[in-house]
Specification:
With 150 residues, this protein is an alpha/beta fold. Helices cover 24% and strands 27% of the residues.
Length: 150
């Protein structure tokens, strides 16, 4: 994964101490501090502790995956980031999210975006890819899909 770039989703403070969400394309260097670490105004960053284990800012896998794979608007991603920040700040000690089960099923409408996700996170997540539209020889395609709560 070294040398790969990916989009960072950062919840920061503006000049009036209000939260806002930005996105930056940055190089990915596993084992090194998260690129957001240099700014003291970053409250939360999308990312994985498996990639940046000693990050000085809270990392949110939820924010990273939703920012990369969904069609959420900026206000929706900001709401997710604020909820994640509140979850991280409810404890009186530094909370580190450890992904107990790294298996995910990724549903995608575009084979190219699915391939980029696998290239970026394939070393961190055990990915079961599934296309919901179109066909690609590398991926299974869902013809009838039903999701039910368990």
């Amino acid at each position: 994964m070294t040398g790969t770039t990916y989009r960072h989703h950062l919840l920061s403070l503006d000049e009036n101490a209000g939260p806002f969400l930005t996105q930056q394309q940055e190089p990915l260097h596993p084992g090194r501090p998260h690129p957001a670490a240099s700014s003291g105004r970053i409250l939360l960053a999308g990312g994985f502790t498996a990639i940046s284990p000693e990050s000085p800012v809270h990392l949110s896998p939820t924010l990273q995956v939703n920012g990369d794979l969904t069609t959420c608007s900026d206000p929706q991603l900001t709401a997710i980031a604020l909820a994640e920040l509140q979850r991280h700040n409810t404890a009186n000690w530094r909370l580190v999210t450890r992904e107990a089960d790294n298996t995910v099923c990724v549903l995608a409408a575009d084979a190219g975006r699915l391939r980029r996700f696998i290239d970026t996170y394939g070393g961190v997540l055990a990915i079961h890819p599934l296309l919901v539209t179109g066909c690609d020889p590398d991926f299974d395609t869902a013809t009838d899909l039903t999701l039910t709560p368990t």
